[in-house]
Specification:
The strands form five sheets. Strands 5-4-6-7-3-10-11-12-13 form a nine-stranded mixed β-sheet, with helices on both faces. The protein starts with 23 loop residues before the first helix and ends with a helix. The chain is α/β, with parallel strands linked by helices. It has helices at residues 24-32, 35-38, 46-49, 61-67, 88-101, 117-120, 137-155, 174-179, 188-207, 238-242, 258-261, 298-309, 336-344, 346-359, 365-377, 396-408; strands at 55-56, 72-73, 77-82, 105-110, 129-132, 161-166, 209-216, 218-220, 230-232, 245-252, 267-277, 285-291, 295-296, 312-314, 319-324, 327-332, 378-379, 387-388. Strand 11 and strand 12 (285-291) form a beta hairpin. The longest helix is centred in the middle third of the chain and has 20 residues, at 188-207. The radius of gyration is 25 Å and the shape is globular. 38% of the residues lie in helices and 21% in strands.
Length: 409
């Protein structure tokens, strides 16, 4: 037997890059010349297929930074997982609006048959929003595939395509629809999702489309005699395996920092954790508020992101300092929205923060810090799972001082 080159200890020597007259493109061209092999086959040199990854903004600068590529990545599957009234559909509608603003198309699969069009009209242009309500999973994904392919033909290359499936648990399989209410079958939806999720990633990649799936919370029995129940993502294992980004959404109350000083009477704060992320580091956390009837508060999200990056800090008497560009601004948090609009510009501030995140990615050490901060926010001793702790009320003296500073300014 002929042995290859070895080191002085007898181990195989490491092989370097191929040299000489080998041309991989000629090999691929010869293989593709066979019509039987080339039918339905995508093969090329990896460097030729590399391109700038497209993305659709989530509407929250802090969540765009946590995902790591500026928003929801193109040609990928995203899952937003959370309990009821935790902002999942609002995140989906913000993604649709970002796609429309970028000159692309938005398609909404209302599987729950419960989309409020009056609420959706506040985010998107209904005349340019594709809406379909499929009877079962197989028909829905077949229709989704045709809509994506035809939309890409009409749009051409470049503009994003953002597709929403709301929600995974609400859809019924073809087998379950035929069985009716009386004849139950064992998990037909899991088998249906297992089939369609094998096919849809290829459609998304070839047409550069993003699939945003909403997942409700389901509890499963724990393993072992005394194990507590666990939260389940999606239906079956296929959605979780094929998803590139899984976002866990939980309402909570901030206890410190700039977020604790922003008054939010018409909404709630949302803590979104990227528990799975194939495009960047996982377990990064984004904090931003959602206001009822308005959606994500970009100004508050930008301030919290700036504080995380070290560009903003909380001062005494309800004041905040912010570094934007080459200038440092100091203002009252209660008047932050008007100050930023007049002096800086919210769009310009968000663009500068996005560029700062691209130039200075979040270090890996900050991930453990963010996880420990979540442990401080949530209390796992409750029977109903993690519950947000309510921050203690501020003293009356501090409120009087803030009122006096407002009058002085």
């Amino acid at each position: 037997m002929v042995r290859g080159p070895t080191t002085h200890r007898g181990a195989p020597a490491p092989r370097g890059p191929a040299t000489g007259g080998f041309d991989l493109r000629k090999v691929i061209k010869a293989v593709m010349a066979d019509s039987k092999l080339s039918k339905g086959l995508d093969i090329s040199v990896a460097s030729d297929t590399r391109k700038v990854s497209s993305f659709v903004s989530s509407g929250a600068p802090s969540l765009d930074a946590a995902i790591g590529v500026g928003g929801y990545p193109g040609a990928r599957i995203i899952i937003a997982h959370g309990k009821e009234s935790s902002g999942k559909t609002t995140l989906a509608l913000h993604g649709c609006r970002s796609a429309q603003e970028a000159g692309g198309a938005a398609i909404f699969g209302d599987v729950e048959n419960a989309l409020d069009l009056d609420y959706a009209e506040k985010f998107v242009d209904l005349d340019k929003l594709g809406l379909f309500q499929p009877p079962h999973i197989e028909r829905g994904f077949d229709l989704m595939e045709r809509l994506i392919v035809q939309t890409r033909k009409d749009l051409g290359e470049g503009p994003p395509i953002f597709v929403v499936w709301d929600s995974l648990q609400a859809a019924e399989s073809l087998q379950g629809e035929k069985a009716g209410y009386e004849k139950g079958t064992w998990s037909p939806e899991s088998r249906a999702y297992s089939k369609v999720f094998r096919k849809i990633p290829k459609i998304l990649r070839r047409n550069d489309a993003t699939l945003f799936s909403v997942s409700q919370v389901r509890m499963t029995s724990g393993v072992g005699k005394f194990a507590p129940p666990r939260e389940k993502i999606g239906v079956g294992q296929a959605p979780m395996f094929y998803a590139s980004v899984i976002i866990d959404t939980r309402p909570f109350t901030p206890k410190k920092g700039i977020a604790s000083k922003i008054k939010l009477d018409d909404g709630f704060w949302l803590c979104s954790t990227c528990r799975k992320n194939k495009v960047s580091a996982p377990w990064r956390t984004a904090v931003f508020p959602i206001r009822y009837g308005i959606g994500i508060d970009r100004m508050a999200s930008a301030l919290v992101l700036a504080e995380t990056l070290g560009l903003a800090k909380l001062l005494s008497k309800g004041r905040c300092s912010l570094i934007a560009g080459e200038e440092e601004h100091e203002f009252l948090i209660s008047r932050a929205e008007q100050y930023i609009e007049d002096r800086i510009g919210l769009d310009l501030l968000c663009a500068e923060l996005a560029q700062y995140v691209r130039d200075n990615p979040l270090p890996a050490g900050s991930i453990k810090k963010e996880i420990s901060s979540l442990e401080d926010v949530f209390d796992d001793d409750e029977e109903d799972g993690p519950v947000a702790k309510i921050a203690p009320a501020e003293d009356e003296d501090e409120e009087e001082q803030e009122d006096s500073t407002d009058e002085d300014d």
